[in-house]
């Protein structure tokens, strides 16, 4: 009878599982209901669809006995239509089939992608203005207003980066507000910081993780991320800015005369997708020109384009003339980690600048090693301290592998107290900050971290002595420990290294392409400074020991991430918009892409942190060159039909595509993902080129924005064996010819397998219109 007993147990457990799943399915959660374009004529019109229409739709699927749930958490009606509400899984499924609903998805939790940089971009890379761009031209246009919307953790309005001295009246086209909070008043806004919004979600019983109170009732930044990114994009000039003496100089944003509107959507815990959608909707209605979003979904859990709130919001913002710039993510150097990859999003990778922060190690045998990191310790040459390796001071019963990586609880505190500890980073699941806290909690004197992957990114350890070295230096330090009876060392306070070479290089953390959603769009698009960036910070101490003794909390901080690279491009785009007010987002994007630089300050090809030549899946088309982008000669205009065809080629039904844009657009009859390569994008990516197939032909159209009479000649550089031809190879523009279409054929019979990279450049004697291609040969 044992079999019967086991069978009954199985039935009980199965029924319990089914019952639990059923209950879970019927627990209301926060869902986003996306209903496509709100304005058929695609204009910024307020309140196209009323809340009552959405409430009526809700009441049709929510039982009357639960009428308290017939309520909108967020209502989207300006750039696009939709709402968010508390729904069960079955209700969400029922709504997804409703006429006019494009997609329904659970509110996702997104993550934050967490000066000298502008001088480096504009001067030290040789990025001087072309001879036909005079200083008078730049000054003349610098006063023309453009407005940046920063969707982030809010803003610290008292920062000197947001002063409004010398800035004119707020543009009359601005329709936004300055919301008051418990610690934020209308008077905190000014002619520089012209708008501030915050968003709350009240906790609901049974709600999921995304039901957070995202902004605690105020636009004020309590994290620092939003303040930092806003000042990078558009902070005013601030003399004698530094981080406790490091990186001393004049801080400024990319477009110091540009206005800022802050939208607080995130907390330290993350960012609600529904709130980000609402902020994009508001920003478009308010009248911003460029939206900066240093936020994204995890590369491990990427949604398709109709379940990604940033992709949805950016699609409609783009159609209303508002560019959306996003960070590529910090999950590098692995491939297929880039996020925010929709073709209508400007996706930004991170690089270093010609400045580094060096913290020197002195060993007892007199050898010096230059590590990286930021520390304000009081250690000196004159006193040496015992040096121990984590693996040799393991706590009882702790595996040696955990101790060498300084896992929490893995070290014997009695053996590390008063000593300098060496930790490895074989296991990247334990962050540098955790290792530092483990060693510091054990009353150690300091920490030397051996980490090849992240040595290019300076970690800020505050007053605690810290430095980081690569594997080569680490091996020599461990050799010294193992060959010496009483090894000793000291870690010196950080000094600044100027004119650092080579730079720019790709940041080790910067997420890499190709895109996991489609390899037929090259992502990321461009690269911009994102390592060791000095910018405004909230002046308060968050961690004990973060402020050097005798100092007040700094008004500026040094941070790294694609979060910092994103606002560099935002500021550059706003600058171009102020000069070319009638240019569309795709024209500005094209100008920044086709004029990007692919060499470093040694005048050699761009490299990554492993010293290999960087490929387009790491850097996109290269490092932005804002001044040259003012006059690109030719631009690729990517229009709404390109984006709609993209959605068809990607696999969305014609019904969904029509619902998104409220149009009678017909998907091409032979839609396939391979055709995505043909949308009019400023770079080319082909996911599959069979060796035995005939040449694959890609079409592009360029628009002349330079001299009305110009002749451009094609120059192709390709990897060995990949045959690339351009037809025609000469473009002749005249006053009656502004747009010309050309074809590029790719033939891979003799090419190497895998990705082949190269470029097509159009030259007229004044302009270099550079297009990068990536072709995977099979």
CATH superfamily of the largest domain: Peptidase S8/S53 domain
Strand content: 25-35%
* Helix-and-strand structural type: alpha/beta
Rg, please? 28 Å
- Name the helicity range: 10-25%
Note the main sheet.
8 strands, mixed
- Cα(first) to Cα(last) distance is 60 Å
- What is the correct CATH architecture of the largest domain? 3-Layer(aba) Sandwich
How many strands appear in the DSSP assignment?
Answer: 38
**Counting H and I runs of at least 4 residues, what is the number of helices?**
17
Residue-averaged pLDDT: 88
State the CATH topology of the largest domain. Answer: Rossmann fold
For the record, what CATH class of the largest domain applies? Alpha Beta
Q: Count structural domains.
A: 4
Ranges where pLDDT stays below 50 over 5 or more residues in a row are 1-8, 10-24, 41-47, 124-143, 202-215
User: What is the molecular shape?
Assistant: globular
Could you characterize the architecture of this molecule?
The protein is an alpha/beta fold and 778 residues long. It folds into four domains: 28-101, Peptidase S8 propeptide/proteinase inhibitor I9 (Alpha-Beta Plaits, 2-Layer Sandwich); 111-354 and 504-630, Peptidase S8/S53 domain (Rossmann fold, 3-Layer(aba) Sandwich), CATH 3.40.50; 356-497, Glucose Oxidase, domain 1, CATH 3.50.30.30; 680-777, Immunoglobulin-like. It is 23% helix and 25% strand. It is built from 17 helices and 38 strands. The strands form nine sheets. Strands 17, 18, 19, 20, 21, 22, 23 and 24 form an eight-stranded mixed beta sheet that branches. The protein has a seven-stranded parallel beta sheet with strand order 7-10-6-13-15-16-26, with helices on both faces. Strands 31-38-37-33-35 form a five-stranded mixed beta sheet, with no helix packed on it. This is Subtilisin-like protease fibronectin type-III domain-containing protein. One of its GO terms (molecular function) is serine-type endopeptidase activity.
């Amino acid at each position: 009878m044992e079999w019967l007993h086991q069978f009954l147990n199985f039935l009980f457990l199965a029924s319990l599982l089914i019952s639990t799943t059923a209950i879970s399915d019927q627990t209301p959660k926060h869902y986003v209901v996306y209903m496509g374009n709100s304005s058929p004529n695609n204009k910024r019109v307020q309140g196209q669809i009323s809340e009552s229409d959405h409430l009526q739709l809700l009441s049709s699927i929510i039982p009357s006995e639960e009428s308290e749930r017939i309520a909108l958490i967020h209502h989207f009606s300006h750039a696009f239509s939709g709402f968010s509400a508390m729904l069960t899984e079955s209700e969400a499924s029922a709504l997804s089939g409703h006429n006019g609903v494009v997609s329904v998805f659970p509110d996702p939790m997104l993550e934050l992608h967490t000066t000298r940089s502008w001088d480096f971009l504009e001067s030290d890379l040789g990025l001087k203005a072309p001879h036909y761009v005079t200083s008078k031209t730049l000054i003349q246009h610098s006063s023309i207003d453009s407005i940046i919307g920063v969707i982030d953790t809010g803003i610290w309005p008292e920062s000197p980066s947001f002063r409004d001295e010398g800035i004119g009246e707020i543009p009359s086209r601005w329709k936004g507000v300055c919301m008051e909070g418990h610690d934020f008043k209308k008077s905190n806004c000014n002619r520089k910081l012209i708008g501030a919004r915050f968003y709350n979600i009240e906790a609901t019983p049974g709600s999921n993780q995304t039901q957070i109170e995202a902004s605690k009732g105020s636009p004020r930044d309590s994290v620092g991320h939003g303040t930092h990114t806003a000042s990078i994009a558009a902070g005013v000039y601030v003399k004698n800015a530094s981080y406790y003496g490091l990186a001393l100089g004049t801080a400024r944003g990319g477009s110091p005369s540009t206005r800022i509107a802050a939208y607080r959507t995130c907390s330290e815990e993350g960012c609600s997708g529904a709130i980000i959608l609402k902020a994009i909707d508001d920003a478009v209605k308010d009248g911003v020109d460029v939206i900066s979003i240093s936020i994204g979904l995890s590369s491990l859990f990427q949604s398709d384009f109709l379940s990604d709130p940033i992709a949805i919001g950016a699609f409609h913002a783009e159609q209303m003339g508002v560019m959306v710039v996003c960070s590529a993510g910090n999950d590098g150097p692995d491939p297929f980690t880039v996020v925010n990859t929709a073709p209508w999003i400007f996706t930004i990778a991170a690089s270093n600048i010609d400045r580094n922060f060096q913290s020197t190690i002195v060993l007892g045998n007199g050898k010096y090693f230059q590590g990286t990191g930021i520390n304000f310790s009081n250690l000196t040459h004159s006193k040496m301290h015992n040096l121990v390796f984590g693996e040799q001071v393991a706590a009882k019963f702790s595996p040696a592998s955990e101790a060498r990586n300084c896992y929490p609880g893995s070290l014997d505190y009695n053996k590390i107290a008063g000593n300098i500890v060496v930790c490895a980073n074989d296991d990247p699941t334990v962050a540098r900050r955790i290792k530092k806290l483990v060693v510091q909690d054990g009353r150690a004197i300091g920490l030397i971290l051996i980490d090849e992957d992240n040595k290019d990114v300076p970690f800020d350890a505050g007053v605690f002595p810290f430095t980081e070295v690569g594997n080569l230096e680490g091996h020599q330090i461990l050799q010294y420990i193992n060959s010496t009876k009483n090894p000793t060392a000291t870690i010196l306070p950080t000094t600044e290294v100027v004119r650092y070479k080579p730079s720019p290089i790709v940041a080790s953390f910067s997420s890499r392409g190709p895109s996991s959603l489609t390899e037929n769009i090259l992502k990321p698009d461009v690269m911009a400074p994102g390592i060791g960036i000095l910018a405004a910070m909230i002046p308060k101490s968050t961690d004990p020991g973060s402020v050097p003794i005798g100092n007040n909390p700094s008004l500026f901080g040094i941070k790294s991430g694609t979060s910092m690279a994103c606002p560099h491009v935002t500021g550059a785009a706003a600058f171009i918009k102020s000069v070319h007010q009638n240019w569309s987002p795709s024209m500005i994007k094209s100008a920044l892409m086709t004029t990007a630089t692919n060499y470093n300050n040694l005048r050699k090809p761009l490299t990554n942190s492993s010293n290999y030549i960087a490929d387009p899946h790491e850097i996109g088309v290269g490092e932005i060159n804002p001044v040259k982008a003012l006059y690109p000669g030719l631009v690729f205009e990517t229009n709404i039909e390109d984006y709609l065809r993209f959605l068809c080629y990607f696999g969305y039904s014609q019904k969904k595509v029509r619902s998104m844009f409220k149009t009678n657009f017909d998907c091409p009859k032979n839609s396939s993902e391979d055709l995505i390569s043909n949308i009019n994008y400023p770079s080319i990516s082909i996911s599959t080129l069979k060796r035995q197939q005939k040449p694959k032909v890609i079409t592009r159209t360029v628009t002349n924005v330079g001299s009305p009479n110009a002749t451009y000649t094609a120059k192709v550089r390709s990897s060995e064996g990949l045959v690339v031809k351009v037809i025609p190879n000469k473009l002749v523009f005249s006053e009656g010819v502004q747009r010309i279409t050309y074809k590029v054929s790719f033939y891979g019979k003799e090419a190497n397998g895998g990705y082949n990279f190269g470029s097509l450049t159009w030259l007229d004697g004044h302009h270099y219109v550079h297009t990068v291609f990536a072709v995977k040969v099979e």
